[in-house]
Design goal:
The complex is a heterodimer of chains A (313) and B (476). Chain A has 16 helices and no strands. By secondary structure, chain A is mainly alpha-helical. Chain A folds into 2 domains: 152 residues, no CATH class; 160 residues, no CATH class. Chain A is globular. The longest helix of chain B is centred in the N-terminal third of the chain and has 25 residues. Helices cover 32% and strands 21% of the residues of chain B. Chain B has 2 domains: 398 residues, no CATH class; 61 residues, Dna Ligase, domain 1 (2-Layer Sandwich), CATH 3.30.1490. With 476 residues, chain B is of the alpha+beta class. Chain B is built from 16 helices and 25 strands. Chain B is globular. In chain B, strand 1 and strand 2 form a beta hairpin. The chains are: A mainly alpha (313), B alpha+beta (476). The interface between A and B is medium-sized, with 24 and 22 residues.
Chain lengths: 313, 476
């Protein structure tokens, strides 16, 4: 037996923890590009902001697209609902709400992550400190995840938490890809010429996959391989197919435990079937941007339906 | 008037503290300091905090914890238990009477207007018999001591007393910090409190409820000062922690919204004040309560602990009549003393109070938590004069008491042991029997010489925070 409000709290606690981590990864990618490229840093920071889904909010500030302003906005800004600090605040508030559903280890890891990041992000981050700060963020979220997987009973509480993590991750991966989709489009301008490997690295790096990609595709950097890896690969833990496989599993366990299937089960199943049966050629045929737009829409609709089916509100 | 010290008498350790003092004196002070700071880290990490209203900077504050325990002997404790049991029986009998035939008023022992005109009196409770006949299920009796054999009840917290989670966490922390101490001193356990609480609540289930009742703790939410405690107790009892927004009346029962639809609740341990319990009956703009819950309650389909309207029993105006109340319902003199109290509503008393402001503590009749009170001896002349104005304007709003010389207990400070005034709040559970776990919360006036020990006064200007020693531990 679980309160709808508690399911909602578990779901959002994990969405926000995942989001905090994704923000750190985006900043890392942007920073790396700004260091290695000349002249286009502004464009890179703009696409980072678009991927993070906070472009409009940032533009409203009338601040330059430079490293200092963007990094501050993404890591610390209290008025940016997706900044790392705001995400951790929100995650902790949700954690306090569902405290009775968490093991002591999980609650303490969330509380300690919040305390540590509040200290680290309490003042502007010096660029020299940035790599260390980003590592600290990723380490804190990794500790939470470790505590979660190591101590939580595999019951409905676990399933709702997992849904939060994977829904957020799928959303984030799709948006990262969508912002850069043009890099992967077959185009006469690059055929046989120098393909911009920095851009590829950007995408892979944003999903922490630059090394594993090489293992899986033997270093064959083609648009089809990169897109395939991030969208369809079933073993890459940030791919859309992986996320949705996990989402279907979690929903499946809930259906089993409660003995009831809902609309959300069918929706998730449809999405997974599409991800499993499609080839990357099909997707390029449909149009990568069109495919991703449709995915983001379905993913959001699924999130709403889960909230309705399990009485989050 | 010299202060009675819990630990030492005439330069010697008092008997309950003999073993402890021997142990303490043999410890290295730096090591103790380290332990003391370890404790703070543990509390911060686990989020054992309380919120202070209206103080954004310190939205969550740690409960200061002191490593020196409060120890009572078995003999001292047994006497307190007798006195508390007697008082708690009287309180429940009084509540039943007040909401039924009002014999005590008819007998002329309590003025009628004190009941009828009292904000804490809930007319909707007239004629209602709560499940199990219990009104106040959970009580925290505040007790102070002035001498070896002099104990006074300062307040009967019969509404929604808090602090029991700190007693339990403090004990847990003490056992982690100083396990060897527990080998030396035989201490009665308090850990089973959550289990006893659950059993007590289960016993007062509605008559129509067959089988094991579904129990839930109702909290105002995470921004409430005692949220940690609400979550802690729900967790320890293994019951749901609900908010008003989770609850609704479904088919004449109180039900909570779960991921599988609405599920009936039989017993609600509410930590929401009467005023907010039901917007249809009480404060209409409350979003903390459950619309219609009072109808369900009156129909006998849900048990609410503590019952609505119990505030009439711990009202400060009623307090002064407690000796009469105890005698009226138990037929015996009260075992525990009441602090002598002047009711400012009575002209003679008012005159006396105004004359002796510099030696009295004046409290608002309906205030709680140490707000709106005057500690005469500690106040400046100007503060006393300002307060006298308020007193003359609304005398019936105030009562006055002599400043008792509260006992002191040493706390651990940077400079070693230092005495601070203390009180004691044991926790009482009432169902078909009365349980008092052998422990309690000792609150310490953080400032040297201060007499205010209330924990919700952390934000008040002159008594910055308060500290608690580990739950008192009777030795047997």
């Amino acid at each position: 037996m679980l309160l709808g409000r508690a399911a909602n709290g578990l779901y959002w606690m994990n969405r926000y923890i995942e989001r905090a981590e994704n923000m750190a990864r985006l900043v890392d990618t942007g920073h790396r590009l700004a260091l290695t490229q000349t002249g286009t840093a502004t464009d890179e920071w703009m696409s980072v902001m678009t991927s993070a889904g906070v472009r409009q909010a940032f533009d409203a500030r009338n601040r330059p697209y430079d490293a200092a302003a963007v990094v501050d906005f993404l890591l610390r800004d209290p008025d940016n609902p997706s900044s790392v600090m705001t995400c951790m605040e929100t995650a902790r508030i949700n954690g306090r709400l569902v405290r009775t559903s968490l093991t002591r280890e999980v609650w303490e890891s969330v509380n300690e992550a919040w305390m540590a990041l509040r200290r680290i992000l309490g003042q502007k981050v010096d660029e020299r400190e940035l790599p260390w700060v980003l590592d600290a963020i990723k380490r804190e979220t990794a500790l939470i995840r470790g505590a979660f997987h190591g101590t939580m009973l595999r019951n409905e509480i676990f399933d709702f938490a997992k849904l939060g993590t994977l829904m957020e991750r799928a959303d984030s991966t799709a948006r990262i890809l969508d912002v850069k989709y043009w890099v992967l489009l077959p185009s006469v301008s690059w055929v046989g010429s120098t393909f911009d490997t920095h851009q590829w690295q950007t995408i892979l790096r944003s999903v922490s996959a630059q090394r594993s990609f090489r293992w899986s595709y033997e270093g064959e950097y083609t648009p089809a391989n990169v897109a395939d890896y991030i969208i369809l690969n079933r073993r890459m833990p940030r791919s859309l197919a992986y996320c949705h496989s996990g989402i279907c599993d979690a929903l499946g366990f809930l259906a089993e435990e409660y003995g009831t299937r809902h609309t959300s089960h069918q929706m998730a199943q449809n999405m997974l079937t599409k991800l499993r049966s499609a080839t990357i050629a099909d997707i390029f045929e449909e149009g990568l941007h069109e495919f991703l737009t449709e995915f983001l829409r379905s993913n959001a609709a699924l999130a709403d339906q889960i909230a309705v089916d399990y009485r989050f509100y | 008037m010299s202060t009675f010290d819990e630990m030492t008498l005439g330069g010697q350790a008092r008997s309950p503290y003999q073993d402890y003092k021997g142990w303490f004196d043999a410890q290295d002070v730096d090591w103790l300091k380290e332990k003391s700071s370890d404790a703070e880290k543990v509390f911060r990490r686990t989020g054992i905090t309380f919120a202070v209203y209206g103080d954004a900077e310190a939205a969550e504050r740690l409960i200061p914890f002191d490593i020196v325990p409060r120890i009572l002997s078995g003999k001292e404790w047994r006497r307190l238990v007798q006195g508390i049991e007697q008082r708690v029986r009287a309180l429940n009998a009084f509540l039943y009477d007040i909401y039924h035939r009002q014999e005590i008023v008819k007998a002329g022992r309590i003025p009628r207007e004190l009941i009828a005109g009292n904000r804490a009196f809930v007319p909707e409770m007239i004629g209602v018999r709560p499940p199990g006949g219990v009104y106040t299920h959970i009580i925290g009796v505040d007790i102070v001591r002035t001498a070896e054999d002099e104990f006074y009840v300062l307040e009967d917290n019969a509404r929604t007393p808090s602090g029991v989670s700190y007693m339990l966490e403090n004990r847990e922390t003490m056992m982690q910090l100083f396990p060897e101490l527990f080998g030396r001193i035989k201490v009665l356990p308090v850990e089973n409190y959550p289990q006893l609480l659950r059993e007590s609540l289960a016993k007062v289930k509605p008559t129509g409820c067959a089988g094991g009742p579904t129990i839930a703790v109702l909290t105002p939410g995470i921004f409430n000062s005692a949220y940690f405690e609400h979550a802690f107790l729900a967790d320890q009892m293994g019951v749901e922690l609900v908010e008003g927004q989770d609850l609704r009346v479904v088919d004449g029962r109180v039900a909570m919204r779960t991921t599988q639809g609405y599920k009936t609740i039989d017993v609600l341990y509410r930590r929401v004040d009467d005023d907010f319990l039901d917007p249809l009956t009480f404060s209409p703009d409350s979003i903390l309560g459950v619309p219609g819950i009072m109808d369900v309650y009156r129909a006998g389909n849900v048990a609410i602990a503590n019952a609505p309207g119990t505030g009439i029993a711990d009202d400060k105006a009623i307090y002064s009549y407690m000796p009469e109340i105890v005698e009226f319902y138990t037929g015996r003199k009260a075992i525990l003393n009441n602090v002598p109290t002047w009711r400012c509503s009575e002209p003679d008393s008012l005159a006396y109070v105004l004359e002796h402001l510099e030696e009295l503590v004046v409290k608002e009749v309906h205030g709680s938590g140490g707000y709106g009170m005057l500690v005469g001896p500690a106040a400046s002349r100007r503060e006393r004069e300002a307060f006298a104005e308020k007193l003359r304007a609304r005398p019936s709003n105030y009562i006055a008491q002599p400043t008792l010389s509260l006992s002191s207990c040493p706390v651990f400070t940077e400079k070693g042991l230092a005495p601070r005034h203390v009180d004691l709040r044991p926790f009482v559970l009432v169902s078909d029997r009365i349980h008092i776990v052998p422990g309690g919360l000792t609150r310490v006036a953080l400032k040297e010489g201060s007499l205010v020990v209330n924990s919700s006064q952390g934000a008040a200007p002159r008594t910055h925070g308060c500290s608690m020693t580990e739950g008192k531990r009777p030795c047997c």
